[in-house]
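[audit] Reproducing an earlier prediction to check determinism. Same input, same settings, fresh worker. If the tokens differ from the archived copy the diff job will pick it up downstream; this log only records the rerun itself.
[audit] input (249 residues):
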Amino acid sequence: MINLVIDIGNTRTKIALFNQGELQIILPLTSFNTIALRQFLKDHTNIDRAIVSSVKKNQKALLSVLKKSIPFVIELDHNTLLPIENCYETPETLGKDRIAAAVGANKLFPDQNILVIDAGTAITYDFVNNKNQYTGGFITPGLNMRFRALNHFTDKLPLLKPEMPENYDGKNTNYSIRGGIQYGLKGEINQMIQYFNDLYGNLTIVLTGGDATYFERLLNNHNFVAPEITVLGLNTLLEFNYIRSTERL
């Protein structure tokens, strides 16, 4: 069985193909529309199932194209069946990327206390306990968002891009910005890890997202780096819902 996963995020879209649970292809795209989807489906005609997850509204056109070519298609929303228990008080407001990453982490580390740190446009800290329950987490601005915010909300501070820290001493404006944001964010992440560890103990820490490789070099206490854990979670959701649909027949 060939599964198609479409993950539409804030800044880019990922298209992935899984064959019997194994990731075969993943394509990060800065823009994605029905024309690109039709071309992809022409190039890959053996797809059996598909899932769409989008942080943006109204994907009816994409779903319509998929349903004309693929026998089983679902869109992830708060009514989608989950292989873990969702204890979030407002599931309809929960980010699809957050629950997908939690499902992916639980797939890799079932029956464990897991903290998923997704370092992307925003940084999310999401927790799944050893009873396979998603209990929620925290959201903070991402690395690039912090640089843009300082530039946008002030008249004189320049717009900088992140780089690996090199003993910033704060003796000029660029070093002051870089040191404040980058050392501050390192401290935030370490404090979040400590917070969840104090609450639950025996944490498995999973680092993912577009800035995962940056933080991988910066942090010493992560257990596992999984840049594609969200698409793994979406494929897990697709498989789970397909099996449930066949059981109802």
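[audit] rerun output stored. Observation attached for the diff report: Helices lie at 34-43, 60-69, 96-108, 143-152, 173-200, 212-218, 229-247.
[audit] end
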